[in-house]
Amino acid sequence: MVLENGNRKKPNILVTGTPGTGKTTMSTRLAEATQLKHINIGDLVREKNLHDGWDDELASYVLNEDLVCDELEDVMEEGGNIVDHHGCDFFPERWFDCVVVLQTDNTILYDRLINRGYRDSKLSNNVECEIFQVLLDEAKASYAENIVVALKSNNILDIKRNVATLTDWISNWPVPVYG
Ligand code: DAT
């Protein structure tokens, strides 16, 4: 039997999507269900200073892609990680066995972002990002299409179903390759 992707014993999963689609909520539950490690890139960037300073306009740190990738290289090689981030095009393609793009209906997402305190251009930019499926396109452009999966995240039942589906997939990984 040959294991896929560099002989990792456990898979690496990327959970991406527009802010507010439920990446952190679902990744937390999935990590509890599977004992995989949840890595929230935003938290990691703040904790380890993997940024080039604060952007007032975006009201967020300017992530330094090289520092983030260097920081994660060893743990990703090891496997067993759930990486949670709203972008996905700068990670090495070889890191991931499954790329999940969470999607939320616009009106539901709008309310979630209002509750989070988003206003004006930050609010409209993120809702537009969801309407135009920017993250799904980015994922498809960055990874093999057969590992990219779009999952609805409108309500609690969706989260439960998504966690169950992914837990099942993880428990059956790796798919043996013969020959
Ligand atoms: P993200 O990590 O994508 O920015 P989050 O997990 O922080 O999103 O969730 C944002 C808010 O929306 C939070 O209050 C939880 C809620 N939420 C997320 N996904 C949900 C879902 N499928 N059903 C109901 N509420 C959800």
Automatic annotation (TrEMBL):
Q: What is the lineage of its organism?
A: Eukaryota, Viridiplantae, Streptophyta, Embryophyta, Tracheophyta
An example of a Pfam family matching this protein is AAA_18
How does the annotation summarize its subunit structure? Answer: Interacts with small ribosomal subunit protein uS11. Not a structural component of 43S pre-ribosomes, but transiently interacts with them by binding to uS11.
Q: Which UniProt keywords apply?
A: ATP-binding, Cytoplasm, Kinase, Nucleotide-binding, Nucleus, Ribosome biogenesis, rRNA processing, Transferase
Say yes or no: keyword Ligase present. no
UniProt family annotation: Belongs to the adenylate kinase family. AK6 subfamily.
User: From the UniProt record, which GO molecular function terms apply?
Assistant: AMP kinase activity; ATP binding; ATP hydrolysis activity
- Domain of life of the source: Eukaryota
The ranges of region (NMPbind) come to: 40-63
Region annotation (LID) ranges: 115-125
Provide the reaction this enzyme catalyses: ATP + H2O = ADP + phosphate + H(+); AMP + ATP = 2 ADP
Positions annotated to bind ATP:
20, 22-25, 116
Q: Name one GO biological process term.
A: rRNA processing
- Compartment list: Cytoplasm; Nucleus
- Region (Disordered) residue spans: 1-24
Presence of the UniProt keyword rRNA processing in the record: yes
Q: What does this protein do?
A: Broad-specificity nucleoside monophosphate (NMP) kinase that catalyzes the reversible transfer of the terminal phosphate group between nucleoside triphosphates and monophosphates. Has also ATPase activity. Involved in the late cytoplasmic maturation steps of the 40S ribosomal particles, specifically 18S rRNA maturation. While NMP activity is not required for ribosome maturation, ATPase activity is. Associates transiently with small ribosomal subunit protein uS11. ATP hydrolysis breaks the interaction with uS11.
According to UniProt, the name of this protein is Adenylate kinase isoenzyme 6 homolog
Entry's EC annotation? 2.7.4.3
Q: What is its main location?
A: cytoplasm
* Gene Ontology CC: one annotated term: nucleus
